[in-house]
Description:
The complex is a heterodimer.
Chain A: H1 6-15, H2 18-50, H3 64-91, H4 94-125, H5 134-155, H6 159-173, H7 176-186, H8 206-238, H9 243-252
Chain B: H1 3-29, H2 31-34, H3 40-44, E1 54-60, E2 73-79, E3 84-90, E4 102-109, E5 115-123, H4 131-143
Amino acid sequence: MFLIPDSVGRFFHRMASPPHFYAFTEKLLPWLTGIFLILLACGLYGGLYLAPPDYQQGDSYRIIYIHVPSAWMSLFIYMMMAVAGAIGLIWRIKLAEIVAISSASVGASFTFIALVTGSLWGKPMWGTWWVWDARLTSELILLFLYLGVIGLYNAIDDKRTASKAVAILALVGVVNIPIIHYSVEWWNTLHQGPTVTKMDKPSIHVSMLVPLLLMALAFKFYYVIAMLQRAKLELLQRERTANWVKKLIEEQK
Amino acid sequence: MKPIRRQRLILIILMVVGIGTAVGFALKSFNENLMYFFSTTDVMAGKAPKDALFRLGGMVVKGSVQRPGDGLTVHFKLTDFSKEVAVEYTGILPDLFREGQGIVANGKLDERGVFVAQEVLAKHDENYMPPEVKASLKKQVEGK
């Protein structure tokens, strides 16, 4: 770890200690929630009110302000989960295991939202709720991967063993992430190609792009908030016999 | 990094790379089946199934949409900018069906070589812009 400055190294080292992590997130969460609400309000106002209608789809295109950030998050959270899982496997850091499993249900929710909003848009625009093209199918597999991770974790009583099993499953599923992203370029699909995440200039007008990016940022904050809250709960459950948890409960009384 | 951790890291990297390669080969061999539709060039080259339903995708050729009679039957041509295929469809078209727009039709070829569609889906493109911008773009193109 010679590339990482000492202060950063120390920060992560301290974060890996459960009582420290707990106290730190406690302080961090109100700030994150505040930033999230502001970003969400700006993004929704910009997307639903300020942004002009599309030349072809009129107002129906506005579902992208939910659909696209959710789909991005479904991939982003999966990578976070897999990386946290790998860190847990290699360094046996309990908190990395907790971050991995706490990400799973948030990721599953975003995947579900992306699939449902896409379907609602598909009916009027394409003329069908669902097709088995490469993009839609691989995104559905992603949902099953998330559900598999959650199910596997709950099926094993010893949570440290469960975390290892889950991390391996998550790492196996990583192969699906580039498939989802490039599916629209590698194969003929009904789903359109990428608008923003490509080498070229985004093929979306800037007045529509800004609220989209705001929403994407808001969703990132939402993920961190939801994941940290789940992580706190998971941590308390795992450490319920530890002294710092007992002290915390005494203080709450 | 401690040797045991390095070993685990290498093991994980090997696992991810191995699975990636295996899936990559599998996808490559199933490539044809993963295509949601055939292009018009594929159909002209005889790659599409003869007596079975298949999906045909392409751009609706500008000025090719005709409605003979007053029914729901539409005739149009699809292109991938190299070969064209004539399509016949009876039914309600989706909102985004327009000339110059991509569509995917499900159906089969009849003996005349016309693709008789049972279902027509519009394929949206990745462009989003306000109507005014589209209008000014159009003006620029016409001005040239």
